[in-house]
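This part of the workshop introduces the protein records we will be handling. As an example, a complete record with its sequence and its structure tokens follows.
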Amino acid sequence: MSALRPLLLLLLPLCPGPGLGPGSEAKVTRSCAETRQVLGARGYSLNLIPPALISGEHLQICPQEYTCCSSETEQKLIRETEATFRGLVEDGGSFLVHTLAARHRKFNEFFREMLSLSQQSLAQLFSHSYGRLYSQHALIFNGLFSRLRDYYEKSGEGLDDTLSDFWAQLLERAFPLLHPQYSFPPDFLLCLTRLTSTTEGSLQPFGDSPRRLRLQITRALVAAKAFVQGLETGRSVVSETLKVPVSEGCRQALMRLTGCPLCRGVPSLMPCRGFCLNVAHGCLSSKGLEPDWGSYLDGLLLLAEKLQGPFSFELATESIGVKISEGLMYLQENSVKVSAKAFQECGTPHSVPARHRRAPAPREEAGRPWRAVAEEERPTTAAGTNLHRLVWELRERLGRVRGFWAGLPLTVCGDSRMAADISQEAAPCWTGVGRGRYQSPVVGASPTEQLHNPELDVDALGPDILTRRHRLQLRAATARMRAAALGQDLDMRDADEDASGSGGGQQYADDWKAGTAPVAPPARPPRPPRPPRREGPGGKGAGGSARYNQGRSRSGVTSVALHSPPVLILFSSALALLGPR
């Protein structure tokens, strides 16, 4: 028996022993060479990393077994794993932020340049037809476009006030030209505009043109403003939401996921995919924007369809010159009736001696011929595109990001630094305590499911304050866009409620499309009549139009005449009213 003892001692190491348990990979190789190589390449001081495994009693997060990490190394890894996770989240949402920012820029440029083209086209047609006659009164028209632009860009005063002021100033200039034999004092002109602005409509010098212009341009501008504001709000909210504030529980789970393998001396052992998904779901569950995100996208698409359909911004801006021309023609054709009503209510003005009367407009200027621009000569838009194409691109891009927040954990765990590739799911991986297979179930992203997350305790109270604020911002933008799709300006309604408590707001019925007859908008609470604003001195020729900043009109853009319907053949006789004073 004694002769067999040396042989048994030689064969003992070859006999199979009990299976390798958790942490056995560190007991098999007690070297930290691989960890030193990886962390050294990341800039860690090798003086902080022992060459061989040491006792891990000092560790706060990783298993307190044999380790390659000192306390300082563990703290640095905690910060690094958090930064890596936050970087992956922001990188994963960069396409979404870029998409919303690019769509905002394109639509904003399109709407602004359509307003500029409308202004330049009106000026081109009028100045080409009437020359000096139009230039003498161009401030009125430039002022209208300035205030329309202010409303769109700066959320200025209501469009009802802007359009009412424009028609009142136009009447102040045009009505005296119908009666050069009279001198009209400021009181008479004030009475005239008061009759025009009364809710009963006792005097309608421009017929139905003011109402139709208000309906078309206001509805389109309200929708355009709400749309670009919605895109900007979405970009801002997404950008802030992607800057994830990591909780302490999430920070510890991320360290167990990607930092602890380095401390155990096995940096090449990738975390299990299920392990990563549970950590990512837990860290992001209270940061996402669902279900408000889907409603927000639906609101964007709904309003985009309105803008290229019944609320067409292109047709609305092109109609400005047409409606003004129709209004002037109505005033000329019904001058006898309008004048009789005005003289009855405001009194008869004093006659002017014949030698002091204004000279009539030269016929060659008043009737100068003009050429209608052919459809094929017109560019698509000033931005080189059209609204249909912009909406198509928006719909295509938003389709890619509809499930973004639900798929963000999959995007994060698809990175090679966070988890093993899905093709290696059957191979042993890092489970959080050692080599093996991840046995815990992968929980869903809903708050109820996250209560059973095995990797970190998720707050049962739901989203944090910052996330709730972001969701409220999305809801507000969605409500504004849905109201604009119904022809309502929520911003003006809030202002009306603050001023009068009526809550009526501005509402515009969905009743106008190209080629259809207009229908009266919904009834609104009556508004008190008010004269147009004046800043210049009173008297003749000192109407409110002088306060407009003509320099605000855009320059440097090629002026292109709009496709002109047959009604524009009436321009010559209509603008002849605006003769020199």
Summary: The longest strand covers residues 182-183.
